């Protein structure tokens, strides 16, 4: 009889020990664990963003649980659930698209784990479901892109004058039909993502004042260089007389430039090119005269993510929105002094 009791209590002990071991966080030097869900590796920008997060975690001694979702929202939701099960101190993630996060954020809130939204924004009514957003002002990136175009098409009297654009001046380009609208093609980012939505909105917000500009076509290239190339091949078959390419990221732009060159079209001269991100390959293309304007989108968010995560882990409040510093580079700038882009 005694043996039976002994075996029962021993099994109970090991069962409790096993349970507490699997759900308990490992002891950490600073007791801080950050769960980070990244969307994938679709562009040079994204890879730089990933390196920035990983290097900043290593430098600050924060233990990083890093999951790459390989472009799938369901993988991000699974990763966030595993962070909750593991009882991390803070969750940070880049939402690949803006919709569909309510349930998993409810679960994080119930588990009392603060959530930092990084890079891309989410569209959610209950703002209490996350602690703050650190990223870039994508609506402004769209506005800045359009503001460059307005400058490009001003005539010497400082007015928009399409008839006046017939002769080539230092900042104007010749127009075949003086009264034709400026025909714009947009290479859009991942459908449903905040950069694709906001960059389109910001661009149109400024151009809505100028009926002389017409967006004749827009299609998503998913931020991929390969798709930017494919899109441009099809667009050049479908449309003639394109004046401007407005591209939501450098990867798609570089693919589109390849397609233009294959057809003897001079990027930056025959077709004006505006690109967002600011990776080194795009700056180099601008120096060669193949891109006319690069609107910076800053991927180096790692140090700020760690700083904000530490505040959240300590129970501190953070500002609801924090934007990274960004610039605009154009063909009129002296780019010789530009700092290496680091990606
Ligand atoms: C924007 C970021 C976008 C970049 C692309 O903040 O989410 O995703 O513009 C990247 O290069 O793929």
Mean pLDDT: 89
- Classify the helix fraction into a percent range: 25-40%
Small molecules held by this entry: beta-D-galactofuranose
Uncertain runs are 15-24, 163-176
Strand-residue proportion: 15-25%
Q: How are the strands of the largest sheet arranged?
A: 2-1-3-4-5-11
Number of helices: 10
Overall 3D form: elongated
Question: What profile does the largest beta sheet have?
Answer: 6 strands, parallel
- Ends distance: 71 Å
What Rg, in angstroms, do the CA atoms define? 25 Å
Beta-strand segment tally: 12
In a few lines, what is going on in this structure?
The protein is an alpha/beta fold. It is built from 10 helices and 12 strands.
How does this model look, in words?
The chain is built from ten helices and twelve strands. The protein has 343 residues and is an alpha/beta fold. Strands 2-1-3-4-5-11 form a six-stranded parallel β-sheet, with helices on both faces. It has a six-stranded mixed β-sheet with strand order 7-6-8-9-10-12, with helices on both faces. Strand 1, helix 2 and strand 2 (63-68) form a beta-alpha-beta unit. It is elongated. The protein starts with a helix and ends in a 13-residue tail after the last strand. Bound molecules: beta-D-galactofuranose.
């Amino acid at each position: 009889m005694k043996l039976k009791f002994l075996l029962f209590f021993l099994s109970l002990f090991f069962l409790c020990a096993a349970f507490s071991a699997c759900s308990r966080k490992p002891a950490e030097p600073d007791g801080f664990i950050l769960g980070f869900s990244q969307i994938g590796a679709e562009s040079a920008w994204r890879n730089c963003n990933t390196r920035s997060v990983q290097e900043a975690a290593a430098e600050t001694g924060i233990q990083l649980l890093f999951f790459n979702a390989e472009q799938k929202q369901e993988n991000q939701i699974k990763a966030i659930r595993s962070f909750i099960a593991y009882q991390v101190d803070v969750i940070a993630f880049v939402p690949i698209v803006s919709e569909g996060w309510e349930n998993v954020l409810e679960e994080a809130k119930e588990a009392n784990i603060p959530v930092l939204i990084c890079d891309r924004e989410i569209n959610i009514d209950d703002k209490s479901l996350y602690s703050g957003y650190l990223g870039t002002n994508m609506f402004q990136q769209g506005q800045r892109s359009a503001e460059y175009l307005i400058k490009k098409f001003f005539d010497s009297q400082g007015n928009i004058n399409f008839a006046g654009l017939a002769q080539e001046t230092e900042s104007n380009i010749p127009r075949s039909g003086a009264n034709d609208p400026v025909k714009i093609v947009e290479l859009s980012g991942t459908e449903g993502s905040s950069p694709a939505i906001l960059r389109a909105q910001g661009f149109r917000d400024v151009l809505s004042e100028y009926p002389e500009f017409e967006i004749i076509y827009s299609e998503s290239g998913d931020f991929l260089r390969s798709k930017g190339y494919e899109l441009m091949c099809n667009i050049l078959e479908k449309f003639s007389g394109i004046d401007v390419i407005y591209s939501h990221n450098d990867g798609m732009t570089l693919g589109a430039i390849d397609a233009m060159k294959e057809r003897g079209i001079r990027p930056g001269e025959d077709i004006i090119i505006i690109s967002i991100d600011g990776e080194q390959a795009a700056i180099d293309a601008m120096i060669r005269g193949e891109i006319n304007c690069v609107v910076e989108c800053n991927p180096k968010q790692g140090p700020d993510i760690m700083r904000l995560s530490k505040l959240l882990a300590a129970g501190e409040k953070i500002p609801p929105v924090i934007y990274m510093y960004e610039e605009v580079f154009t063909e009129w700038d002296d780019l010789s002094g530009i700092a290496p882009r680091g990606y």
